[in-house]
């Protein structure tokens, strides 16, 4: 059905399906437990829910006194950086070997079909596969992350060099609703009109990206990002300072337009957690597909599978939900075959 407009929504399980060493939200629990301050009250109550913990630290709650609020902000920055480093290290390990063939074919299909991809992931796995695929392609015909993002993000290198340009390549849109490990901002509370920068994905590792040449080192990148930190947005359950930035808001507007036009929305290893109220409200308000396809390793007959279906049926009470064929082991690979058929 080539005329069907599809939108993919990727959860952390998608990255794990591509490379098993990529962490899901559950895999982040040991990392957070290593942070000494998070092992005591009130933070220990969120030990099994990293997303809720990030939301608690990031939000200004009415019961927090000034000292407590500042302490939580400092902890959030610490956790934010730790998550970024952990994900980057996992991605570097992952790309010591090539991605599976089905992932390559998926990226090529997304490019050809100009599909919109909404992702809740912080990693740069999709961008890195796109980068690897450029070799062997005619010059100027294959996209970079700048084409994927389709936003007024600026390269870190423009902080020390003049404007540079290249022909735009029409491709799929990668809409990273929760930020990315290669996006940077100042970290200040109010950053509504602040420029958001990205670090180009052009190597086999997030730690070597954008060095600019074989003889370069990461000293240049560290200098350009010295006063910045990663833009990693927690799936907050209420209004957040992160959503005040105009570039971030433009992400959500692009996502809104994509789901409004979609005939089918495929949720790829995304659990639709209760903590992500923003996403639930967004989907209920704007997603009107004829069909919702759930792609997950939890079978419909299991307890976790039933809970997953319940959450989706609450959001899409009047939409056909296709679960049976793609809730199983190897679900993402089966989905790729379905999309390419």
In short:
39% of the residues lie in helices and 12% in strands.
Write up what this structure looks like:
The chain is an alpha/beta fold and 341 residues long. It has a single domain, classed as Rossmann fold (3-Layer(aba) Sandwich), CATH 3.40.50. It is built from twelve helices and ten strands. It has helices at residues 12-18, 29-33, 50-58, 66-94, 101-113, 125-133, 145-149, 219-224, 246-261, 277-286, 303-315, 331-340; strands at 6-10, 116-119, 154-155, 173-176, 179-185, 197-198, 229-232, 264-268, 291-295, 320-322. The strands form two sheets. It has a six-stranded parallel beta sheet with strand order 4-2-1-8-9-10. A four-stranded mixed beta sheet has the order 3-6-5-7. Helix 11 (303-315) links the parallel strand 9 and strand 10. The radius of gyration is 20 Å and the shape is globular.
Mean pLDDT metric: 88
Give the second-level CATH assignment, the architecture: 3-Layer(aba) Sandwich
Q: Which H/E pattern describes the elements? A: EHHHHHEHHEEEEHEHEHEHEH
Count the strands? Answer: 10
The tally of domains stands at 1
SS-based class: alpha/beta
In whole angstroms, the N-to-C terminal distance is: 8 Å
Poorly predicted segments: none
What is the CATH class? Alpha Beta
Largest sheet: 6 strands, parallel
For this structure, the CATH topology is Rossmann fold
Give the helix tally.
12
What are the defining features of this structure?
four-stranded mixed beta sheet, alpha/beta, 341 residues
Helices, strands, pairings?
Layout lengths: L5 E5 L1 H7 L10 H5 L16 H9 L7 H29 L6 H13 L2 E4 L5 H9 L11 H5 L4 E2 L17 E4 L2 E7 L11 E2 L20 H6 L4 E4 L13 H16 L2 E5 L8 H10 L4 E5 L7 H13 L4 E3 L8 H10 L1
Parallel strand pairs: 1-2, 1-8, 2-4, 3-6, 8-9, 9-10
Antiparallel strand pairs: 5-6, 5-7
Helix pairs in contact: 3-4, 5-6, 5-12
């Amino acid at each position: 059905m080539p005329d069907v407009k599809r939108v993919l929504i990727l959860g952390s399980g998608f990255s794990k399906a591509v490379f098993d060493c990529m962490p899901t939200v559950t895999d982040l629990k040991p990392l957070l437990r290593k942070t000494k301050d998070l092992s005591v009250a009130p933070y220990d109550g969120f030990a099994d829910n990293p997303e809720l913990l990030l939301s608690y630290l990031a939000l200004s709650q009415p019961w927090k006194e000034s000292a407590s609020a500042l302490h939580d902000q400092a902890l959030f920055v610490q956790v934010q950086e730790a998550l970024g480093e952990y994900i980057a290290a996992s991605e570097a390990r992952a790309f010591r070997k090539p991605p599976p063939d089905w992932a390559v074919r998926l990226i090529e299909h997304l490019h050809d079909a100009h599909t919109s991809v909404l992702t809740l992931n912080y990693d740069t796995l999709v961008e890195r596969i796109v980068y690897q695929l450029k070799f062997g392609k005619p010059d100027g015909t294959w996209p970079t992350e700048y084409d994927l993002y389709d936003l007024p993000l600026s390269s870190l290198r423009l902080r020390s060099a003049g404007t540079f340009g290249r022909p735009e390549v029409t491709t799929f849109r990668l809409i990273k609703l929760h930020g990315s490990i290669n996006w940077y901002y100042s970290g200040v509370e109010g950053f509504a009109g602040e420029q958001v920068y990205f670090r180009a994905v052009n190597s086999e590792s997030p730690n070597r990206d954008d060095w600019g040449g074989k003889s370069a080192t990461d000293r240049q990148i560290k200098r350009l990002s010295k006063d910045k930190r990663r833009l990693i947005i927690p799936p907050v359950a209420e209004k957040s300072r992160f959503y005040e930035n105009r570039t971030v808001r433009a992400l959500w507007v692009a996502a809104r337009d994509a789901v409004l036009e979609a005939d089918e929305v495929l949720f790829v290893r995304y659990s639709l957690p209760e903590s992500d109220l923003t996403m639930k409200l967004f989907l209920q308000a704007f997603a009107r597909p004829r069909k919702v396809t759930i792609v997950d390793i939890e079978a419909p007959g299991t307890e976790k599978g039933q809970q997953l279906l319940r959450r989706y049926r609450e959001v899409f009470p009047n939409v056909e939900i296709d679960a049976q064929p793609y809730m199983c082991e190897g679900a993402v690979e089966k989905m790729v075959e379905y999309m390419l058929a």
